[in-house]
Write a structure and sequence with these properties.
Length: 379
């Protein structure tokens, strides 16, 4: 089944992404166990990291999580249209023109500035509502929130906003998979901020959250009672360098596939693809595969001598430049390859981490650049 109606015209499929919801549920439970926290905010922004918002949201909602984390109100609107009951949390600062809808629908914003808080409060008063909000603390990311040194003064002003229910406090790691020392500093700053806020408001916050996937896998954060997994839900473990390559019991949710459309025996000295960047060094069996950067396969792997795909149980080199709709692959060592053979671009046999390394990018980008013309087949 596809969430992209334009692809209903394309059967049989040439390019598709298999979405394994059983793996998604497994990853959620694995991360919950690792965090030791019962409360979870599943981050499903950017079309659930390219996996398909509707299928992922309905699957995760069946697991009784606490929040869906989204980037902005367009994503909140999409979830509302899907009739999900799980609370919707906005992960960043909001625009003034977005805030009336936030109050109307009862979506939960993180308060990133005093001006934002005051505006939301006035809107809540006008709509005769109480709005649940979380206070954002900038412990090092620099994208928004209150600086720790501002908190004592800010608390006094926030207390005067009677239509806001401060049920949570949040921050965000900036380098939890790269810089262990700075991450520990962020944890310390967050712990201190929670203390200041709870001392001022004379109560504990219902939700305290900082840990992304790397935070869940690699750190202990005593002040947190809500985890906020993103990439890990989709089967990719990110963390400190000492853990690179270890998926820590996570399973890939997306498998990107295509098919061989043509196989030709080409003589030594044949130029391949645009720019003639690759010249066959000997006689080769060259397969044309029906996927390209128009589908989201990264052009950055161009002729780097490292990129591979998985065909008939074997890894095969990608040759020459990636074009919009096709790539070329050396199948000389795979005599059983034929027109129609399935090609795995990434999945259980070839990690998206490896593809992102070949592309000099990150798995988040690989997932989110898979385009709408790639049919998502959910199972």
């Amino acid at each position: 089944m596809s969430e992209y109606p334009l692809n209903q015209l394309s059967k049989p499929l040439r390019v598709w992404a298999q979405i394994d919801l059983t793996a998604l549920k497994h990853n959620l439970q694995s991360l919950k166990q690792k965090s030791g926290l019962a409360a979870v905010m599943a981050v499903i922004k950017a079309d659930a990291y390219g996996h398909g918002l509707a299928a992922v949201a309905h699957c995760l909602e069946s697991q009784q999580i606490d929040f869906f984390g989204v980037a902005h109100i367009a994503e909140a609107q999409a979830l509302t249209k899907l009739a999900v009951k799980t609370r919707i949390y906005l992960l960043g600062a909001t625009l003034p023109e977005e805030r009336a809808q936030i109050v109307e629908h009862g979506w939960t914003p993180c308060i990133c500035s005093l001006a934002e808080a005051e505006h939301l409060n006035s809107l809540a008063v006008s709509q005769k509502k109480q709005l649940k909000v979380h206070i954002a603390i900038d412990t090092g990311m620099g994208r928004g929130g209150f600086l720790p040194e501002q908190l004592k003064e800010v608390c006094i002003k926030l207390s005067a906003l009677d239509a806001l229910n401060y049920e949570g406090v949040a921050s965000h790691f900036c380098s939890s998979d790269e810089d262990e020392a700075f991450t520990h500093l962020q944890i310390q700053l967050f712990n201190e901020a929670v203390g200041i806020l709870e001392n001022h408001f004379k109560r504990e916050f219902r939700y305290r959250h900082l840990a992304n996937t790397a935070g869940i896998l690699d750190y202990n954060i005593p002040s947190c009672n809500l985890s906020r997994p993103g990439l890990g839900l989709y089967g990719i473990a990110v963390g400190l360098g000492k853990n690179t390559g270890n998926n820590r019991d996570l399973k890939p949710v997306m498998t990107l596939k295509s098919k061989i459309t043509l196989i030709r025996e080409l003589p030594k000295g044949t130029s391949l693809s645009y720019g003639r960047d690759y010249i066959t060094p000997y006689k080769m069996q060259v397969a044309t595969v029906g996927i390209g950067y128009g589908d989201g396969y990264p052009r950055a792997v161009n002729n780097n001598g490292k990129a591979q795909v998985f065909i008939e149980g074997q890894l095969c080199p990608v040759l020459g430049r990636v074009t919009m709709d096709q790539i070329l692959v050396d199948v000389s060592a795979v005599p059983q390859a034929m027109i129609g053979s399935e090609v795995e671009l990434f999945g259980p046999n070839l990690s998206v981490n490896q593809v992102s390394t070949w592309s000099n990018t990150i798995p988040w980008e690989i997932f989110t650049q898979i385009t709408p013309r790639v049919t998502r087949i959910v199972h």
